[in-house]
Each structure stands twice: as structure tokens, then as C-alpha cells.
Design a protein that fits this description.
1 helix; single chain; 49% strand
Length: 68
């Protein structure tokens, strides 16, 4: 995909996992699911490190229920 200008990263936060997906601002870009990760800071840092290579700017959005 090369480096996009912006990636939008969606986080669906649960008690023990976080579902992660992202989409770029490129025309007709597909949403890519990265699956579930753990909730530890090191798990989140690893995903951020991977996504920083794909875009200049990362924008995070999240949804958390009563347990997240």
C-alpha cells in the first residue's frame, strides 16, 4: 500500500481483549482487521509500532462497553 497520509484505527475495547481494525484515507481503501490483541500497554505499543510504518498520521477511535 505504500505510506498513506492518515490511518483511522478503530479499537473495540473489552475486559480482556481489544479488537483492532484500520482504514486509510486512500480512495476505495479497504478496512483491514488485525484481530484481537491483549489489553496490556506492551500489546498496544506493538500495534502502534506496526501501524506507524503505514502512515504519517494515526487517528484512534474507540468503543468501550461497561467492562472496557
Amino acid at each position: 500500500m505504500g505510506q498513506a497520509s492518515t490511518l483511522y484505527i478503530g479499537l473495540d475495547v473489552h475486559k480482556e481483549t481489544i479488537a483492532v481494525a484500520y482504514v486509510s484515507t486512500a480512495r476505495q481503501a479497504e478496512v483491514i482487521s488485525l484481530g484481537n490483541i491483549g489489553t496490556r500497554q506492551c500489546d498496544i505499543d506493538k500495534v502502534i509500532g506496526q501501524l506507524q510504518t503505514k502512515a504519517k498520521k494515526l487517528v484512534f477511535v474507540y468503543e468501550a462497553g461497561p467492562c472496557g
